[in-house]
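Reopening this one. Same input as before:
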Amino acid sequence: MLNDEINDVRIAALHGIKRFNKVLTLSDYEVDTVLFNLNEDNPRLREEIYLFFGETTVTQTALFTKILDKLYSNLIKFEHQDDTEKIFALV
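Same output, byte for byte:
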């Protein structure tokens, strides 16, 4: 569902996955799938992904580093939008 063309479907999928994050941990593939969606030029989708990662527990150092690297690249790529404020709110 995270690959759907409709943004509302992708956002709903993120909300559903977020509920399971309290009992499950994300795999490398799942993290990559969510991170891929950060490439979209859709501020609402990116904001939902930032909120998603703010509520996600990452147990592997490599995955945590991968997420941080993508967040940093989005700071640069979308600096003209509200992404900076939303990314820093994750801390």
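So the earlier flakiness isn't reproducible anymore. For the record, The chain has a mean pLDDT of 82.
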